[in-house]
Amino acid sequence: QTTTNAAQGLALEERLALSPFIRNAVLHGSGRPYNVALVAIDEARVREWAAQQALELSDDLTGDARVRELIQDELDQYSRDFRPYERPLRCTLTTTPLSIENGLLTPTLKVKRRAVESRFAAAFDALYSGSVRAADPATTVGTSTRSARPLHREQ
Q1: How far apart are CA 133 and CA 120, in angstroms?
Q2: Cα(39)–Cα(7) distance, integer angstroms
Q3: Among 26, 81, 83, 116, which one has the highest count of C-beta atoms within 10 angstroms of its own C-beta?
Q4: In angstroms, rounded to a whole number, what is the distance separating the alpha carbons of residues 7 and 115?
Q5: Distance between CA atoms of 71 and 107, rounded to whole angstroms?
């Protein structure tokens, strides 16, 4: 069972975005066995966190295991008040924020779900198939070579 109540899904997305490391979160899962999410990370804040921890991160933040662990911890912390089936089981990280300019937000700053689902279709499908290769960033966000990577939570 996945989130079918749109209000609950929006509430969870808004809660996840309270994390200082998450710019946007979009849940995906209607008609699927579990929820997954697209998480746009705040690149500057993640790099600040790494500097405070004396960590050297690669240019590709979405592929760094320490960043993925940080974001998973944030997802767990900010979603703990929601039912287990509402929480995203897996997610894809991107450094591309959702914006009006890139067509992923409306002028009133609401998520254009069809545009997000279309742009990140391969990444979402990979999260359900378990295939990392299908979520190749080059196939999900146009010209960027480092914008979306899957993050998996142990079941």
Answers
A1: 14
A2: 19
A3: 26
A4: 20
A5: 28
Structure tokens at 126: 């990979």
Q: Which residue has the tokens 């990979």?
A: 126
Distance between CA atoms of residues 91 and 10, nearest Å = 16
Q: Could you tell me the CA-to-CA distances from 109 to 90, 101, 104 in Å, in that order? A: 25, 11, 9
Pairing of strands 88-94, 22-28: unpaired
Q: Which residues pair with 90 in a beta bridge?
A: 36, 152
154 by Cβ neighbours in 10 Å (0-12 / 13-18 / 19+) ranks as exposed
Written as six digits, the tokens of 39 are 């998480």
Tokens representing residue 89 in the block: 């089981």
Which residues are CB-neighbours of 119 under 8 A, at least 6 positions away? Answer: 104, 140, 141, 142
pLDDT averaged per 10 residues, the chain (length 155): 58 94 94 92 96 93 93 94 90 93 95 94 89 37 36 47
